[in-house]
Amino acid sequence: MEKRTLDHASDDSDHSPSNQKIAVEAGAFETLGRSELPPDPDAHLSEAEKAAIVSSICLSPSQNTDDPLLTRHPAQDKKLLWKLDLRLIPWLCLLYLISFLDRTNIGNAKLDGLQQDLHMTSGQYNAALSIFFVSYSLAEPLTNILLKRLRPSIFIPSIMTVWGIVMVTMGLVHNRQGLYTARFFLGLAEAGLFPGINYYLSCWYKRSEFGIRAAIFFSAAAVSGSFGGLLAAAIGQMSGVGGKHGWSWIFILEGLATVLVGIASFWMVYDFPDEATFLSADDRRRVLRRLKADQQSSAEHENFNMSYFWASVTDWKTWLYMVIYMGADGPLYAFSLFLPSIIAAVSTSAIDRRTHKLTSHLFSLATNPQPPNCSPCRPTPPPLS
Questions:
Q1: What share of the chain is helix, strand, coil (3-state, %, to 5)?
Q2: pLDDT tens string 194-213
Q3: 157: left (phi over 0), alpha (psi -120 to 50) or beta
Q4: Does residue 179 belong to any structural domain of this protein?
Q5: At 255, is the pLDDT very low, low, confident or very high (cuts 50, 70, 90)?
Q6: Most confident stretch, 174-188, 224-238, 358-372
Q7: Domain tally for the chain?
Q8: Where are the beta strands (DSSP E) in 58-163?
Q9: What is the Cα–Cα distance from 336 to 232, expressed in whole angstroms?
Q10: Domain range spanning residue 350?
Q11: In sequence order, which residues have a C-beta less than 8 Å from that of residue 58 and are 6 or more positions away?
């Protein structure tokens, strides 16, 4: 295999974004040893500058001044992280906010007469809620494979546009069979977002930086619930417009908004770090070096291999995490899907129902536990063999 090299920027002062990829070809990182790093964009620093940098970083017992992680400027790292956070996190949070709003707005639609208009019993309504999770859970394990075969800037906007269209069709159904079908395909389309975004973020951030950003991303679910009821109440006032019920307009308008955001995401969702047009060539190298030094496989452009899949399936920790996540998701979806009906049972005013739902979600957001901050002096991962 022909060895590929990473181009150095000829002038360090040139930080204009470039459309040229940095080590984009599959296998480019395999030309390096597992413990080797790509070329250092900060290699131009003098020994005195490097010594000042090393002295400003607290060392763990397992680190030494020869550690390649220490040949970096902390100010550059902070500036780089700030740039990544501003470009990635807000839009990704918006996508998950819309995703959670679309999958749970059926609870608000019920208050506007969905169950009565479709002549559904309570059991049939609950089946419509549950069928979403059947297709969602079946498709979810396969979505990251598609994410790797396609590109994030294609895969994520595409599935979002598809589920927006499904949401619109949900507002056009006339019987429970149509609702069942729409909910099934909604779960199928939405399945790729949550696992895909978590994998996507791991391709940009070190493990010590990933937790807080994943928590912020997940908190978008509480934000969606805090105003979803008020939005549904406003849209529900359109009942009778175009011969449609209020609950129909909830699905149609929120679905159209999803389609618009999905189309915008073709320009707002970026691919992996080596293709990021908003980063300079040096910053791309810095991101890749940080991942490589953190022993992240995502820095190596590894190809999909079924042995990786079976290794995860047979790992007991995978099943333990599944049980833990079930414990978190059970109350979350029970709260999101049934809270409108619970509040309706104890409130006589429609305004009271929406206000109670708003305050409950804001409280859950304010008390959402965040992962502890990871110490910058944590021990480094064990050496790779």
A1: 65, 0, 35
A2: 999 998 998 899 888 888 99
A3: alpha
A4: yes
A5: very high
A6: 174-188
A7: 1
A8: none
A9: 14
A10: 74-366
A11: 376, 377
Kindly report the CATH number assigned to the domain that includes residue 233. 1.20.1250.20
Which pTM was predicted?
0.73
Query: Mean pLDDT across the stretch 240-259?
Result: 94
CB burial readout 353-378, b (16+ within 10 A) else e:
bbbbbbebbeebeeeeeeeeeeeeee
- Domain membership of residue 358 (yes or no) is yes
Six-digit token string for 215: 């928590």
Gap between the Cα atoms of 228 and 140, Å rounded: 25
Q: Where are the beta strands (DSSP E) in 295-360?
A: none
User: Among all chains, which residue has been given the structure tokens 């895969």?
Assistant: 155
The owner of tokens 């480019």 is 28
CA nearest to 280, candidates 23, 9, 7, 2: 9
Tokens of 245: 């019920």
Query: Is residue 108, in this structure, part of any structural domain at all?
Result: yes
For the chain, what is the radius of gyration of the CA atoms? 24
Q: Return phi, psi of residue 174, to 5°.
A: -125, 0
Dihedral-angle region of residue 16 (phi above 0 means left; psi in -120 to 50 means alpha; beta otherwise): beta
The 3-state DSSP class for residue 60 equals: coil
Q: Do residues 185 and 166 touch, judged by C-beta distance below 8 A?
A: yes
- Rounded CA-CA distance 19/33 in Å is 27
Between helix 176-190 and helix 122-149 the angle, nearest 10°, is: 30
Range 195-199 contact pairs with CB under 8 angstroms and sequence separation of 24 or more: 195/140, 195/143, 195/144, 196/143, 196/144, 196/147, 196/152, 196/155, 196/156, 197/92, 197/95, 197/96, 197/156, 199/144, 199/147, 199/298
Tokens of 149: 């075969």
- Is 360 within the bounds of a domain? yes
In whole angstroms, what is the distance from residue 325 CA to residue 1 CA? 43
